TrEMBL record:
One Pfam entry name: CoA_transf_3
Keyword terms, alphabetized: Transferase
Keyword Transferase included in the entry's annotation: yes
InterPro entries in the record: CoA-transferase_III_domain, CoA-Trfase_fam_III, CoA-Trfase_III_dom3_sf, CoA-Trfase_III_dom_1_sf
Molecular function (Gene Ontology), one example: CoA-transferase activity
Entries under PANTHER family matching the protein: SUCCINATE--HYDROXYMETHYLGLUTARATE COA-TRANSFERASE
Domain of life: Bacteria
Lineage start: Bacteria, Bacillati, Actinomycetota, Actinomycetes, Mycobacteriales
Name of this protein: CoA transferase
Length: 794
């Protein structure tokens, strides 16, 4: 596959970096004076003039630098695009620059009518917010990502620029889906419109659905609850101990010697007086234990726990070390001389190649290599029967639980795959238990918003896999599947005889996606792994929070991030099978995905020997922050990128004389006097309503956003204009608006969801009948409780 990237910073380069990992031939076209990411961070020691993060994002790509005023450079770029399968760009929507480069839709149609185009932008290519000025901080604020993470302090962004990688991974997923559509004989370019704003909303644990349900029950829509225990201090560092169920909480209370608090989980979570008392009593014990001992003891009790690693300690983590995930290039200056994450997925038959150098600035386009081994789109991409449903005919056997694997299968189902999800009446999908505040009625396990949001577009059967009969039925279904997906700890499916080695004996060309938290091998392979563990172990948490405060959980996005990366790998594996008939095993260890999108801390540590401090809401190249408003508990995010933004802000403040204050006279001066800058801005914002502040600053071209909260996520004009939500009727809980996918493919589907989440065992008869079972045999299975339609002992 031939790819041209005309992108900068992280979103577009990370999209194409994933494609390089999968074997694509990528040309990175830089507009003079080059990608600003070249100057981000510590320069590599080999004198190439760029930093480690640029190298990580762009390793293995060809390079070409184009002057807008150079006819020769433009002609060379157009020649590349004319021979490409895919173009990925993150230029501003409908910008003059896009027209000057000849990258508008009409020009591309003339240049290469069989091209697939992925356009990544802050808010999308249309809608009232399309042209709104934004920065990574204000995008996080607009999408509900800036949250209170440390009690008593302003809400804080996610660190290490993680959200930008997320948008890039969605773009890669959309690109491979669109290429599949293009292979269906479309006679014009297939265009993909990726919204970073929507991508961030898509990784949230359905707070808009939860808020809607809470408000219908007469409860506050923005009820706050901290994960328990969360991140706590041990004798030698930070450790995450995470209670996902009531049993976890009881076990934690017993572990710390405080069983009397077992009945007070909810009160402690929401910050009642019991919380302070509990931590006053538990902290001395926790602080007497080492991180390693706390993790080992917790995991022995099946309590999800993990060390909180940073750019230094992650390199000595035994699970990463034994799996050889981080790639040490310090002995090879030609490859950058630093340490970087490996690929976020492992493919057994088509492994990711070794790193290659990133392109140098100023290179001239040499053209495509038409030698042996170059695959053109016609040979590489299978032809769908329906461009609206490009995965129609694909049979997916879904053994996943909770969110990560289910997110992958939800996506495949949305675009036409037949996804059959397996649960049991003895042990249903654990995601049904999420949202304990909503446990109303005997059918409470059908009502959870996280369950409903993650399991759209599927059929559901129940099989007791602890019985030989249930396992045999599962094997019969897996034998007819194209794809099998699971994300348990490794021992679970292995005990059931449903691991890849077992399945390939009955289905030689099956593609199996395994998504264990910690990986299939390594000393921690059987550890209990949840989203919070992934955040803590991968460096996400240590990068988030204030410099003088504790590491902070992001609280959720690790699961869908893993699901998106697994989907990218699967779509490539499907194309490999279409060409060769060969299936394979895909291993997507969630801790490795987490580390891949938190790359900078380990790269910088390897170059400097210093651990990067958490930055709170700040950024190293311009001043910004999150500020109070006249409304209690309401905040605004403001970024001042340059002197023009500062002049506009000063005018809004009503103090133009402040422009002569030497403390704020340049970007560097504002950074050097950031505390004073914050005082000036906060002195104005706290006198105004948040919406007024954001409107006034945006009118002047200054990036500013009111922090989005769960109770307002259904009231966003930009989302309505782009039909982000889709209303569906659930048979038990009624009509709800579910988030779609954060991109639009043209031509492609108008709707992103086909059916609501199934009820437990809803499709038992339908699926078993397709396997040849009679009504009498199905009734016997129900009598034996191999199958069922209601939770056992509910």
């Amino acid at each position: 596959m031939r790819v041209v990237e005309i992108g900068s910073e992280i979103t577009a380069p990370y999209c194409t970096k994933l494609l390089v990992d999968l074997g694509a031939d990528v040309y990175k076209v830089e507009l003079a004076p080059g990608d600003p990411m070249r100057g981000w961070g510590t320069p590599l020691p080999n004198g190439v003039g760029h930093g480690g993060l640029f190298d990580y994002l762009n390793a293995g790509k060809h390079g070409a630098t184009v002057e807008l005023t150079s006819d020769t450079g433009l002609a060379a770029m157009h020649q590349l695009v004319a021979g490409a399968d895919l173009l990925v760009e993150n230029l501003a929507p409908d910008s003059q620059q896009r027209w000057d480069l000849g990258l508008d839709s009409e020009s591309l149609a003339r240049l290469n009518p069989r091209l697939t185009v992925v356009r990544i932008s802050n808010f999308g290519q249309d809608g009232p917010a399309r042209d709104r000025e934004a920065t990574p901080l204000t995008l996080q604020a607009a999408s509900g990502w800036v949250n209170e993470r440390e009690p008593g302090r302003p809400p804080v962004q996610a660190g290490a620029r993680i959200p930008e990688y997320i948008a890039g991974s969605y773009a890669a997923m959309a690109a491979l889906t669109a290429l599949r559509i293009a292979a269906g004989g479309v006679d014009r370019p297939v265009e993909v419109d990726v919204s970073v704003f929507e991508a961030l909303l898509s990784t949230l644990p359905y707070p808009m659905l939860l808020a809607e349900r809470l408000m219908k029950m007469g409860l506050p829509g923005n009820a706050k609850g901290a994960p328990m225990l969360g991140i706590v201090r041990a004798a030698d560092g930070w450790v995450g101990i995470n209670c996902l169920t009531g049993q976890h909480w009881l076990d934690v209370c017993a572990m710390v010697g405080l069983p009397e608090f077992g009945e007070h989980q909810i009160a402690i979570m929401i910050g009642g007086p019991e919380r302070e008392e509990f931590f006053d009593k538990s902290n001395p014990w926790l602080e007497s234990m080492t991180v390693a001992d706390l993790v080992e003891l917790s995991q022995a009790l099946r309590i999800p726990a993990a060390p909180v690693t940073d750019g230094q300690s992650i390199l000595s983590c035994p699970q990463y070390a034994e799996r050889g995930f981080f790639i040490d290039l310090r002995a090879d200056p030609a490859l950058g001389g630093y340490v970087r994450p490996g690929a976020p997925f492992r493919l057994s038959k088509t492994p990711v190649g070794a790193p290659r150098p990133a392109p140098s600035l100023g290179a001239a386009a040499a053209g495509w290599d038409d030698g042996a081994g170059v695959s053109r789109r016609d040979a590489a991409f299978s032809t769908p029967s329906d461009v609206v449903l490009p995965f129609a005919g694909l049979k997916v056997f879904d053994l996943s639980t909770f969110w990560a694997g289910a997110y992958l299968t939800c996506y495949l189902g949305a675009f036409g795959a037949d996804v059959v999800k397996v649960e049991s009446i003895q042990r249903p999908d654990g995601h049904r238990y999420s949202g304990s505040l909503l446990r109303e009625g005997d059918d409470w396990y059908e009502r959870g918003p996280l369950w409903q949001g993650t399991n759209l577009n599927k059929r559901d059967i129940t099989l007791d896999l602890s019985s030989e009969t249930g396992r045999e039925l599962a094997r019969r279904m897996a034998a007819e599947a194209d794809v099998v997906v699971e994300n348990f700890s490794p021992r679970v499916v292995e005990q059931f005889g449903l691991d890849y080695d077992s399945l390939v004996e009955i289905n030689p060309d099956v593609i199996m996606v395994r998504m264990p938290g910690f990986g299939l091998e390594g000393p921690w392979r059987d550890y209990v792994g949840w989203a919070l563990n992934i955040e803590q172990l991968s460096g996400m948490s240590s990068s988030t929070g204030y410099p003088d405060g504790p590491p902070c959980n992001l609280q959720g996005p690790a699961d869908p991030i893993a699901g998106v990366h697994a989907t990218v790998a699967l779509l490539a594996a499907l194309e490999h099978r279409a060409r060769t008939g060969e299936g394979q095993l895909l291993e997507v260890a969630q801790i490795e995905v987490g580390a891949a999108v938190t790359a900078e801390p380990v790269i910088e540590y390897s170059l400097t020997g210093q651990v990067q401090a958490r930055e709170g809401n700040r950024r190293r190249d311009y001043a910004q922050g999150v500020y109070p408003t006249a409304v209690d508990d309401e905040w605004v995010a403001v970024s001042v990128r340059d002197d023009s933004d500062w002049a506009a802000l000063a005018e809004a403040l009503g103090h133009p004389e402040i422009l002569s204050d030497s403390r704020f006279g340049s970007s560097q001066a504002r950074l050097d006097n950031h505390n004073a800058f914050d005082e000036v801005v906060a002195g104005w914002t706290r006198t105004r309503p948040p919406a007024d502040i954001a409107d006034e600053l945006r009118l002047r071209g200054v990036p500013a956003e009111r922090l989005l909260t769960a109770d307002r996520m259904y009231d966003v004009e930009q989302l309505d204009a782009r039909s982000f939500y889709q209303e569906l009727e659930h048979p038990i809980t009624g009509r709800h608006r579910f988030p779609g996918w954060p991109f639009r493919i043209t031509p492609g589907p108008d709707r992103h969801h086909r059916t609501v989440s199934p009820t437990l065992g809803q499709h038992n008869i339908e699926v078993l009948s397709e396997l040849g079972f009679s009504d009498r045999e199905i009734a016997a299975l129900r009598e034996q409780k191999i199958i069922g339609e209601r939770l056992l002992n509910s």
